[in-house]
Design brief:
This protein is mainly α. The chain contains seven helices and two strands. The mean pLDDT is 82.
Amino acid sequence: MDRRSALKKAGVLAGSAVAIPSLFSLLQSCMNENRLGWQPLFFTETEAKTISVLVDTILPRTETPGALDVKSDMFIDKVIAKTYDEEAQKKMRSEIAAFNSDCEKNFGGTFIELNASDREKVLQAAEKNSGKFSPGVWGTAVGKQEPIGFYRSIKSMAIWAYFSSEEIGKNVLAYDPVPGTFEPCIPVSEVGNRWSL
C-alpha cells in the first residue's frame, strides 16, 4: 500500500470515529420524539409516509418490536437532513419519486397505496435488482463498490437504526453494559442471544 492510500484510509477511519457518536445522538433524539407530533426535517409528508411504510414492510412488528416502534423512519429523516449534502438530498428525492413511479407502473399505485401482497412483490423485485454491498474489512469495502440504489440504502439505514436502538439492544439482543464482568469459561449453551453493541 502506498503512503497516499494509507493516509486516505487513516482519514476515513478518523472521520468515522467522529461521525459515529453523532449518528448515535441522532438516533437517541429520535427516541425522544412523539410519533404523532413528528415533523420531518427533510422528507415531505408523502415521502415520510413512503419511508415509514417501507421500513415497516422490511422490519414489521412480530413478537419483537418493528422498525416503526424504534422510530427507524425518523432516524433516516434526520440522517438525510443533517448529513447529506444538497446533491445527495436531491438524489434521494428523485429516487423516492422513481420508486413510487415504478410501483404505479407495475402495480397501479404508489407504495403506500398497495396492499401487503403487492408491497412484498415490490420488495422482492427491489432485493433482486439492487446492488449488493461489497465485503468489508474493519468497515472498509474490499474492492470497488457498485452503486447500491435507493432500496438497499434505505434498508441498510433501517436495519442500522433498528439494531442500534436502546429497545432492541436491551430487550431483544443480549446486553452487557460496559464495564461488565469477565467470565472466561462458560458453556456455549449459556451464551444465549447474539450480542448487541
